Amino acid sequence: MTMPNSIFKILIVDDVSQNIQMIANILKEKGYQMAYAKSGRTAIEHTQSVSFDLILLDIMMPGMDGYEVCERLKQAHDTRDIPVIFLTAKTEPESILKAFQIGAADYVTKPFNSSELLARVRTHLRLKQARDIQNRLIFEKEALIADLERAIEEIKTLRGFIPICCSCKKIRNDDDYWEQIEVYIQKHTNAIFSHGLCPDCAEKLYPDLFKKVKEKY
């Protein structure tokens, strides 16, 4: 299901107020929620209190430039999945390459066409929305599997009173039939039995052999 534009939150980062106003006017027509920052440090602070869906980021800013802002965002667990679109006047190939190397989702040069900007914004918002849904489904699936595994383990745990014959040691099951104790336990737990012979039973069943073994060792 596609969310309405009013749900998406976009952070615009530029040290020039006129640039922020121009971008905001373009996005306002589509009903996006917007916040603004005129420095890299302020942008980082905003992301610590608001969960943004997209960041439009200038490169050339005093102090912390756009590259450093993007790097910090991609290093932090809470912000690394926010798509970053660089909006900049830098057109050099090495600048574009560096932007993508540090994790930018897109690169738009100034002056830009408003229709192109809106198309790129819409594309990256939809991609993030799809990733968020996928991650939520994965989380819910893993939680469900964990719950099922716990339930299975709980089902396999023996509890309460278990009727057992004082002579042959058979157990009365839920269907009121008597069965061997090892069969009953294997049905209700993860235990697997192997059979051996204890010394007392060995002496009782095979006295001569037991005596010889005992004398030998």
Task: Give descriptors for this structure.
single chain; 217 residues; alpha/beta; Rossmann fold; 2 domains; 5-stranded parallel β-sheet; two-stranded antiparallel ribbon; 8 helices; 7 strands; 49% helix; elongated
Characterise this structure.
The chain is of the alpha/beta class and 217 residues long. It folds into two domains: 5-138, Response regulator (Rossmann fold), CATH 3.40.50; 171-216, no CATH class. 49% of the residues lie in helices and 12% in strands. It has helices at residues 17-28, 40-47, 66-75, 93-101, 114-155, 181-188, 199-205, 207-216, and strands at 9-13, 33-37, 54-57, 84-88, 106-109, 171-172, 178-179. The protein has a five-stranded parallel beta sheet, with helices on both faces. β4, α4 and β5 (106-109) form a beta-alpha-beta unit. α2 packs parallel to α3 (66-75) and α7 crosses α8 (207-216). The radius of gyration is 34 Å and the shape is elongated.
Low-confidence stretches: none
The assembly state of the depicted protein chains is: single chain
Cα shape: elongated
What top-tier CATH class of the largest domain fits best?
Answer: Alpha Beta
- The CATH superfamily of the largest domain is known as Response regulator
Total beta strand runs? 7
What's the overall average pLDDT, rounded? 87
Count up the domains.
Answer: 2
The CATH topology label of the largest domain is Rossmann fold
Question: Which percent bin holds the helix content?
Answer: 40-55%
Alpha-beta classification: alpha/beta
Number of helical elements: 8
User: Biggest β-sheet: count, sense, barrel?
Assistant: 5 strands, parallel
